[in-house]
Design a protein that fits this description.
Length: 316
Amino acid sequence: MSVTLVTGGAGYIGAHVVRALLANGDRVVVVDDLSTGFADRVDVPLVPLDLAGAGASEALASVLEEERVDSVVHLAALKDVGESVADPERYYRVNVLGVVHVLEAMRRAGVRELVFSSSAAVYGNVDSESVDEDAPCRPINPYGRSKLVGEWAIEDATRAWGLRALRLRYFNVAGAGGRHLQDRVAANLIPIVLDRVRRGEPAQVFGADHPTADGTCVRDYVHVEDLADAHVAAVQALRSDSTGDDALNIGTGRGASVREVIDVVGAVTGTTAEARVVDRRVGDPAAMVANPGRAHRLIGWRARRDLREIVRSAGE
Ligand code: WQD
């Protein structure tokens, strides 16, 4: 039985990844500082550890050795774009130092397979609607920049000491695999709109004059269970293949506009979800949709769940 260590495994995405790995037959150990995670989300050994703190690489190396870990999935990080603009030092400390300590610990313990949680935010504003992994990375906020620095550190480690790594660039993750795994903060469009509809308030549309078909921003919404499956496929690919130094887009390849999302929320909840157009949000690209072809070619992964299922499961 293979052993996988998941950092950030008590988080919204992490808990789905843990469950998918268990279903795959892995033994799973979680490391989480519980700053935004909840221990009740997972039922596997949980080591409380701040990966950016002093002594973290030594502590993590001991866990890797004691638990005889084969592969690491590194998700523990901060992910609020607005917060990263106000407090960049914190984002570089947690997101970059966290990666550095994970790499040091893996090198020390001789663990060579890593799946890294990266983000479409590494691309910044893109010229074309469909983004592939060769698009230039020009992140426009400290969050995206901290993720890109993490990717660079990982790439350099693959060259230096035989680390094999896949960097997964998530697009807009939403939905849930059951009530207790839900995202517990409504910080993104789908949970925000669900919240407002439940309160009888109109959803806010950040700009209806973008250069898109209906004037509202287009994004690629990917179900968190599909995303979790992508991690399992990535871990499997690293185990069965000797290569491994790639970035992979994790999205559906289909875009949905803010208006379409609001309509689906209305259809799923059986309400007329009202929309009020307000000003554009600063820094929002008009459209951001993945070309997920490389993930399909390299790890055999493809998203299977649609927007309706994402919204339905997010609203449970
Ligand atoms: C989606 C669309 C908004 C709220 C962010 C990060 C990205 C990644 C995912 C972590 C946008 C519009 C939103 C509302 C609206 N994070 N919107 N009314 O900005 O695409 O991506 O989260 O890895 O790095 O940037 O996601 O959910 O905030 O917004 O009209 O009340 O919905 O303008 O077009 P975003 P989001």
